[in-house]
Amino acid sequence: MTTVDEELVRDALRQVMDPEAGMNIVDLGLVYGIETGDAGVQVQMTMTSAACPMADLIVGDAHAALAGTLPPGTPVEIEMVWDPPWTPDRMSGLARDHFGWAPR
Fold first, then answer.
1. In the chain, what's the furthest Cα-to-Cα distance?
2. Is residue 16 exposed (0-12), middle (13-18) or buried (19+ Cβ within 10 Å)?
3. Is 99 part of a structural domain of the chain?
4. Residue 91 DSSP class
5. Are the CB atoms for 58 and 43 separated by under 8 Å?
6. Helix residue ranges, H only, 6-48
7. Which residues make beta-bridge pairs with 51?
8. Span 9-50, pLDDT tens digits
9. In a 3-state reduction of DSSP, which class is residue 71?
10. What's the structural domain count of the chain?
11. What is the value of pTM for the model shown?
């Protein structure tokens, strides 16, 4: 199996929108980690809240985005993590601009 580039995974995940925020999950800071290797792709991500009603939809969209980008048959594991809790400090400058928040 060919090892997949982490940036390719990140770019695919930028296609996944949080429908409540209207912003992609990478710029929102919901993607905590990406590991690629011979065993496939592992993504650690979170939601803005553990009670997020869109969590299943967002994870499904992430799987679909990766399946449409990665070589066929590449194993993908998405793990939900809650530590550390998400805060707006994790957002990119693009997301901060989108919401009209001053830069850090």
1. 44
2. buried
3. no
4. S
5. no
6. 6-13
7. none
8. 999 999 999 999 999 999 999 999 999 998 899 999 999 998
9. coil
10. 1
11. 0.91
In a domain, 1, yes or no: no
**65 φ, ψ to 5°?**
-60, -40
CA distance 61 to 33: 17
Residue among 93, 104, 84, 103 at smallest CA distance from 23: 93
- What stretch of H or E contains 40? strand 40-45
The boundaries of the domain holding residue 26 are 6-81
Contact 72, 63 (CB under 8 A): no
Distance of CA 79 to the CA centre of its chain: 11
CB contact at 8 A, 93 and 103: yes
Nearest alpha carbon to residue 56 among 45, 72, 69, 42: 45
- The helix/strand/coil state of 19 is coil
d(CA 101, CA 87): 13
pLDDT at 98: 86
